[in-house]
Design the sequence.
């Protein structure tokens, strides 16, 4: 990997964590009714996103809403949307942490686990039909592998050689339910065999490993070789604080670049930027009382 | 103008729009080489190829879910669900995603697509090939619902649906797929969504507004003929054509004239679309009503095979309700 890419990966993970920290705090304070934290799994999401081209479309679940930050969406824009402010096009219609960011090609985050897998397949299938170089990437959690849409999406993608990459974050739990209650199989990657597509398992706490795996899968899709299921084995930070992918990547990079500042120094700037953006977003006007009445129909 | 049946008219509309708009694709079970179980997509596969007229795996959730992805990409998918009874594996995608995408994203993303599917009974199809689930879709904000009764409207409304910015459920009354024949203009034309058509105007003292759509329109006409011949009751018959958005003004104006309303539909009575029509008319024209609004519908049971003609609200069941309403 290019040193500049590795450095960008680290910076975006730090920024994503800073946003996540701020939103977790808002949720604990009761300002946000809900928020799905990504802490500890930034490596999988940012690693995957940075393996894409800017025009590729990402289909996340709320847990990967920070994909928008990974893809360069301004923190200010995301916070306006999360707080449901008048200046965001969605004006508080979606719940906090459910993000839509067309500016960085992030489709509306799918709350009903699995639907986004099929959307990404349809998108990538259309791209193949149109001989379009762009691809789609769907994120899913381990729980979504139990959904009918997982089967449907991977099956259609296999049959029609859709230009799509499926990235499954396997952190061992769907909410509180262990992965042993989702499947009898040893791994989630092996489910790809049933669809006649490649499946690859990687260390989701290692952003470089995820980046490499998704890069391979993206190249295959782009070249017309069809879809890939990538299983990124991750750990929630609350489960194992020592598994932090940011500290890990920083350590790896520092070993080869002695001039890399200490992590604490790298974290300070983004944290301050998020705090400033949050203060500004909080002051932004709330939507008018009738803001939910428009956009039901186009005409 | 050539005479066509509904199947030919819909096929004509699909061919015309696929020639005009390269974004339009058809996908569904058996829609390609064989042209669909009712042959509505006949010969389109030959002209447009397998990337635009696509035989899919057997999965309605996949057909509709992938159509959503294609629409998000920028294509204009026209998925076919082989029978409306089969739509429910895709219902989650329709209700949770298709209907909400524009609203939830503030217009950043839309799911512009037209889901075509045959509805209704009277073809000896039994409980899984006969249902009329329109109310389940009308209830969901964000969807438009169309149900033509004749070949001209089928072509014009389908072309309008494909060009509409919103997702449309296009219900095709399969009982009259081939029985309903009529002249259909060649070439390009549309019929506007959201506009009902007064098929027959009422005249005289005792008149009744009869609202129907799809295959039951013909039963309403038969009943109206007999009401006039046997009882001198004149019916104003309204073919809704588009169920949602409802052309409520046309219905209310008619009831203001006749003072009486009978709604006919195949679906079960409870929470059927007739209930909404009666409520809307009552809210707007209560003091003009000369009789309680009435509904002639299917029964609150699953759809039967052997006794389907007992289940359907055919002319012999509509007639006494028209008479009762007129003589109230």
Sequence:
């Amino acid at each position: 990997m290019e040193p500049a890419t590795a450095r960008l990966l680290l910076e975006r993970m730090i920024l994503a964590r800073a946003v996540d920290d701020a939103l977790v705090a808002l949720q604990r304070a009761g300002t946000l009714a809900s928020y799905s934290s990504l802490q500890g799994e930034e490596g999988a999401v940012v690693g995957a996103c940075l393996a894409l081209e800017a025009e590729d479309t990402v289909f996340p679940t709320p847990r990967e809403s920070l994909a928008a930050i990974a893809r360069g969406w301004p923190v200010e824009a995301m916070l306006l949307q999360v707080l449901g402010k008048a200046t965001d096009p969605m004006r508080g219609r979606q719940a906090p942490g459910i993000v839509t960011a067309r500016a960085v090609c992030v489709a509306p985050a799918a709350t009903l686990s699995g639907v986004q897998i099929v959307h990404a397949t349809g998108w990538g299938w259309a791209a193949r039909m149109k001989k379009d170089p762009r691809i789609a990437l769907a994120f899913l959690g381990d729980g979504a592998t139990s959904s009918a849409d997982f089967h449907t999406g991977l099956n259609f993608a296999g049959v029609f050689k859709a230009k799509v990459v499926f990235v499954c974050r396997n952190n061992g739990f769907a909410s509180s339910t262990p992965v042993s209650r989702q499947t009898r199989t040893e791994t989630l990657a092996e489910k790809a065999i049933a669809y006649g597509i490649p499946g690859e398992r990687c260390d989701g706490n290692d952003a470089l490993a995820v980046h490499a795996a998704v890069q391979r899968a993206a190249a295959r899709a782009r070249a017309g070789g069809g879809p890939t299921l990538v299983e990124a084995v991750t750990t929630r930070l609350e489960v194992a604080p020592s598994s932090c992918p940011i500290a890990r990547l920083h350590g790896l990079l520092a070993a080869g670049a002695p001039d890399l500042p200490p992590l604490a120094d790298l974290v300070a700037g983004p944290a301050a930027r998020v705090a400033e953006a949050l203060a500004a977003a909080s002051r932004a006007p709330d939507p008018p009382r009738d803001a939910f009445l428009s956009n039901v129909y186009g005409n | 103008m050539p005479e066509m049946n509904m199947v030919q008219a819909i096929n004509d509309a699909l061919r015309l729009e696929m020639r005009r708009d390269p974004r339009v694709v058809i996908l569904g079970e058996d829609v390609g080489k064989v042209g669909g179980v009712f042959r509505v997509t006949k010969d389109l596969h030959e002209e447009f190829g397998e990337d635009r007229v696509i035989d899919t795996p057997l999965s309605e959730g996949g057909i509709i879910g992938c159509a959503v992805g294609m629409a998000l990409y920028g294509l204009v998918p026209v998925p076919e669900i082989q029978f409306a009874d089969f739509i429910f594996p895709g219902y989650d995608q329709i209700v949770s995603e298709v209907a909400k995408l524009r609203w939830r994203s503030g217009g950043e993303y839309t799911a512009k697509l037209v889901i075509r599917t045959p509805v209704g009974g009277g073809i000896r199809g039994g409980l899984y090939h006969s249902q009329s689930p329109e109310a389940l879709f009308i209830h969901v904000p964000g969807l438009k619902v169309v149900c033509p009764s004749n070949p001209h409207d089928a072509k014009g409304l389908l072309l309008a649906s494909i060009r509409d910015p919103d997702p449309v459920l296009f219900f095709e009354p399969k009982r009259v797929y081939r029985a309903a024949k009529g002249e259909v203009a060649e070439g390009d034309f549309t019929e506007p969504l959201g506009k009902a058509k007064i098929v027959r105007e009422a005249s005289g003292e005792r008149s009744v507004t009869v609202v129907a759509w799809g295959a039951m329109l013909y039963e309403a006409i038969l009943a109206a003929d007999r009401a006039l011949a046997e009882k001198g009751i004149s019916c104003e018959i309204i073919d809704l054509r588009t169920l949602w958005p409802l052309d409520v003004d046309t219905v209310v104006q008619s009831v203001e004239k006749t003072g009486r309303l009978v709604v006919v539909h195949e679906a079960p009575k409870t929470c059927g679309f007739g209930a909404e029509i009666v409520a809307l008319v009552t809210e707007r024209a209560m003091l003009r009503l000369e009789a309680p609004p009435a509904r002639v519908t299917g029964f609150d049971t699953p759809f039967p095979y052997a006794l389907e003609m007992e289940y359907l609200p055919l002319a012999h069941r509509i007639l006494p309700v028209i008479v009762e309403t007129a003589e109230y």
Notes: The first strand of chain A starts at residue 57 and ends at 59. Chain A has one domain: 3-283.
